[in-house]
Amino acid sequence: MRIMGPLLLGSTLLLQPARAETPPNMLVVGFSMNNILTLDPAAITGKETVQVLTNIYDNLVALDAVNRAQVDPQLAESWMIAEDNGSITFRLRKGATFASGNPVTSADVVWSFKRLMKLNLAQASFLKTHGFSAANADASFTAPDDNTVVIKLPKKVDPQIIVQTLGIVGPGSILDMKAVMEHDKNGDMGTAWLTNNSAGSGPFTLGQWQSNERVTLEQNPKYWGEKPAMRRIIMRHLAESQSQRLMLEKGDIDIAYSMSAADLKALENNKDVKIQTNGGSGFYYLAVSMKDEKFQNPKVREALRYLIDYQGLNDSVLPYFGKRRDRPVPAGIFGALPNAGYKLDVTKAKALLTEAGYPHGFSTTLRAISDVPFMSLATAIQATLAQAGIKAEIITGSGDQIYGAMRERKYELIAGRGGGGQLPHPDSNFRAIVYNPNNADEAKLTNFQGWRTSFYDEKINKMIDDALVEGNKDKQIKDYETIQTYYADMMPAIQPFSEVVDSVGFRADIKGLELNPSWSTQLRTVKKER
Questions:
Q1: What is the pLDDT of residue 471?
Q2: Could you tell me if 22 and 234 are in contact, meaning their C-beta atoms sit under 8 angstroms apart?
Q3: At what angle do helices 426-433 and 473-489 cross, to 10 degrees?
Q4: What is the pLDDT of residues 435-481, one digit of tens each?
Q5: How far apart, in whole angstroms, are the C-alpha atoms of residue 44 and residue 25?
């Protein structure tokens, strides 16, 4: 096993003096921050950064934590879709201000969306896939007055999915234009400054971010909504699940976001701790790079499909984290097919490898970030690959090192997590895990996992586009079923084996915590009953 960069095990944290409990007006949250690379909403990747920024930035709308199909007002108090489905008009609430004290105006909203498209960073892909671009941004986003925003859709699309997209932290985050542009450097529109500063209107502001150590959030005294109960939130980088469990048991932290199944299980009978599990977003999967000659062969990709122990991984590694799923659309979403029923079949995999010209297997590398549960997944997959003669060297490290290699298309295999699902719509999954409008290296469509894997099929792109604008619901469902079957027959570059569920452990006196399936768990509602 090759380890890239230091693994922060948090052992020094265990040597700190024990405390009876955290202060009543301060919330201490523990989770791994390996994948937090920037705090600029336009450039973020990964759920961990969303968990931070959802408490700093507001959107026009918010995705409801309980009813995933519901969209709630946030900075917009109302919105209206034009009769021809060609535009959406938002009316902003009055009196909302940014943390700087600047009023939230339609100019800030329009500028935030134009900045997103013109910088063309990771989060721009959510809107680019629906026809928005740097070239048409000026025409697409306009502000007739200080309280009105009009979004003109550049191509035919279901307007509801645009409204839902604007509820996602990242593409929908609204920034303080004046505050950011005071820190414009050589035309970067504040990108360098926003790496470790904030300019939002949310309930908290960024106090400090120390990479792979901690993030401190301070209550925003100018927040337009109900005042949060917590004066300060301290988010601590605790890479080791056992550290999170022990500190949660002692009361040194209030919430633990990324504990292992074993540690969550160990807490089930602790009266001082509660565990909450909700549906999450995306999938755990095995991904190949089709830039690699071996994995361009569909027989090799099919062999890998039968070298995953679907049931074993879900039973042993993914309790509290995942639920068995081998399709690219989560169960329960309209149009989702039942599981295909793939299972570990070493004999079949060996036969497929022989057909592909690899009767004795081959050597490769398998990447996984050093967090729970990825290392356990990688070790288990390494073992089943070996049964067919595939010798996979595990490479582990931070999110930047592992997913960075995937974004640069310089890898062979990855045991990862992703695939959309932040919106309650199959298009969200297909856009993230399948769709690839331009396979050229210079396109740098890094937020499309289809592009990262170099998987490209013009037909499936068109099928996805057509299904999204299909007005007949029954036909649309059939279209999405057909896409799933076609994708499976192509021997895809990404094979899901589990859909994500999220679990969190927290002190029993914490009230008002509600996990959000889109990773946008609001901590402004959290209180301590002491």
A1: 76
A2: no
A3: 30
A4: 999 999 999 988 789 999 999 999 999 999 999 988 788 999 999 99
A5: 29
Chain Cα centroid distance, residue 367: 18
State the Cα–Cα distance between residues 441 and 432, nearest whole angstrom.
17
State pTM to two decimals. Answer: 0.75
Distinct helix (H) and strand (E) counts, the chain: 20, 20
Q: Is 144 exposed, middle or buried (0-12, 13-18, 19+ CB in 10 A)?
A: exposed
DSSP assignment of 315-345 equals: HHT-TTTEEE--SSS-TTSTTPPPP------
Whether the CB-CB separation of 348 and 388 falls below 8 Å is answered with: no
CB 63 within 8 A of CB 516: yes
Decide: 514 and 502 in contact? Cβ < 8 Å: no
**DSSP, residue by residue, 270-315:** -TTEEEEEEEEEEEEEEEE-TTSHHHHSHHHHHHHHTT--HHHHHH
Q: Which among 419, 403, 420 is positioned nearest to 411, based on CA atoms?
A: 403
Closest CA to 422 of 516, 336, 527, 496: 516
**Cβ within 8 Å of residue 118, ≥6 positions away:** 134, 137, 189
Residue 15: the pLDDT is 41
Residues facing residue 244 across a β-bridge:
none
Residues of the chain with confidence (pLDDT) below 50: 5-19
pLDDT at residue 54 in the model: 96
